[in-house]
Amino acid sequence: MSAATTDSPLFSAKLAVPSRLADAVFEAIADAVFEGRLAPGDPLPSEGEIAREFGVSKPIAREALRQLAGAGLVHTQQGKVARVKALNGEPLERFYGFAIRSSLQRLREANEMRLVVETGIARLAARRRAPEGLKVMKAAVDDMERALLNPEAFTEADIAFHHGLALATGNTMIRVQVEGLRSVQREVSELFSRRSNRTEADWAATVERHRAIYLVIDAGNEDGAEKAIVKHYEAADIASFEVAGGQENWGGRR
After folding, report:
1. Domain boundary among 37, 52, 84
2. Residue 93's CB: how many other CB atoms inside 10 A?
3. In a 3-state reduction of DSSP, which class is residue 107?
4. Do 59 and 115 share a domain, yes or no?
5. Are 190 and 240 part of one and the same domain?
6. How far apart are CA 189 and CA 183, in angstroms?
7. What mean pLDDT is reported for the chain?
8. What is the CATH number of the domain that holds 226?
9. Fewest beta carbons within 10 Å, which of 37, 224, 229, 242?
10. CA-based nearest residue to 155, from 194, 200, 110, 190
11. What is the C-alpha separation between 133 and 2, in angstroms, rounded?
């Protein structure tokens, strides 16, 4: 429900811990976002209005807004009112991006996590088959086929496919988590594409693995979806990490 269409209070928290006032203001506003009292695009009250609403100083209200922006819940811009953002994986993506650039070991761990997460996602996607996700997955496979030998376009289509996989579950939190893992996926996809000995047949095989995942999910085959994901990771990641392992100064290469 938009802030402009309700007469009930947006925020109801009682600030009982003076040493953590900014945290309490942050939590109260975050609750309003998650509960739908503030919708994506809605403006937040001004800094001064937030301070009056909660009985705190403007610096406390300002710090709460900084926390909200850092959590990816609001968009702030100098001289303009803060607005609510749609839930997305941007904060997680930044975190994983920094982590995987620190060492090859962190990249390996993050990609191992992707496998664990996506096997469950694939099963749920096959069970629910949300039409929006299936449509995105199919379009991404077509885009990958057109992007053979084009690393940048191929990577973008690859990322879109896995986003579609998450959308097919119909689960918002899964969609946010997969969006957060985009930096990991981008890194692995780019590593795979940079293999000097990668042939056009290798590129085509990657497309076919994605097509196989789409087809079993579209058919509602949960076991087949899990197996197709595992097969995809087994084929793609070994080559990717062979490339990564041969690079010196991993953390500072960008």
Report:
1. 84
2. 19
3. helix
4. no
5. yes
6. 10
7. 86
8. 1.20.120.530
9. 242
10. 190
11. 27
- CA 34 → CA 9, 102, 196, distances in Å? 15, 33, 47
Query: Which pTM value belongs to this model?
Result: 0.77
Q: What is the pLDDT of residue 105?
A: 86
236 with 127, same domain: the answer is yes
Question: Tell me, what CATH number does 62's domain have?
Answer: 1.10.10.10
Residues 187-199: tens digit of each pLDDT: 888 777 766 667 8
DSSP letter (8 states) at residue 4: G
Both 133 and 189 in a single domain? yes
Amino acid type, 178: V
Q: How far apart are alpha carbons 114 and 215 in whole angstroms? A: 21
Where is the domain boundary, 60, 84, 108? Answer: 84
Other residues' Cβ atoms within 10 Å of the Cβ of residue 123 = 19
Provide the 10 A C-beta neighbour count for residue 139: 14
Element (H, E) at 83: strand 80-84
Phi-psi region of 73 (alpha: psi -120 to 50; beta: other; left: phi over 0): alpha
The residue length of the chain stands at 254
> Where in the sequence is the domain holding 79, given as residue range(s)?
3-84
Specify the amino acid at residue 82.
A
143 & 157 share domain: yes
Please state the domain count of the chain. Answer: 2
The model's pLDDT over 40-53, given as tens digits with 9 standing for 90+, comes to: 999 999 999 999 99
Identify residue 252 by its one-letter amino acid code.
G
Same domain for 35 and 132? no
Strand partners, 80: 77
